[in-house]
Specification:
Radius of gyration: 20 Å
Order of helices and strands: EEEHEEHEHEHEHEHEHH
Number of helices: 8
Shape: globular
Oligomer: single chain
Strand content: 15-25%
Length: about 260
Amino acid sequence: MNQTTVTDNPLVIAGREYRSRLLVGTGKYRDFEETRRAIEASGAEIVTVAIRRTNIGQDPGQPSLLDVIPPDRYTLLPNTAGCYTARDAIRTCRLARELLDGHDLVKLEVLGDEKTLFPDLVQTYEATEVLVKEGFKVMVYTNDDPIAAKRLEEMGCVAVMPLAAPIGSGLGIRNPYNILTIVENARVPILVDAGVGTASDAAVAMELGCDGVLMNTAIAGARNPELMASAMKKAVEAGREAFLAGRIPRKRFASASSPLDGTFF
């Protein structure tokens, strides 16, 4: 099939279309200039901001992250990183809406403990219920449990973001069949969040049919963040194309690429 005959729907989150399926974070860079260069190299249009850790106007006397990721160029995704209770996460989202003039798209993550950074699903459900009722458009971080993912979708989340592996671990997708099951049962975008370590991990996520990938440490922690951001951009695009193309089935034995049938001897 000619590439030009393949059509791909854009990524749509909360009614808005995006060309890029790579979402990136803003933490762990050496400075704002490195942040700016890496984000530009990634081609990302959605950028996450940890409200509890980054100045976006809370402290008028300090440099603001908005100077390097202006809201008129990027869709900001305030997140609740560092929150361990539903109450703290809800408060953080309300603060983000106040600081960003009514902005209602947020990434919800409520963590269970400091060692694994796995989500606390009970607290996540509680926060989701309140935030959705208050009109927030919630993109939610969860584990790779298909039941939990479906429940969060049914509660009104605009996107569900299962982890591939623990946050910042770089282990890649540990349970691909869980991710595949989540994708197959979803009616909202599914984006792998957490655990991506290198470009091949991002490609695998996209080949499974995920709608996108969100990452921070894999880029910011690389020896050359700008170059890694470029690699991740290409990997997400290649993985998406491979998913649309449809891979060959896995077989136990060889299958000649140039069969003998119909040849002359």
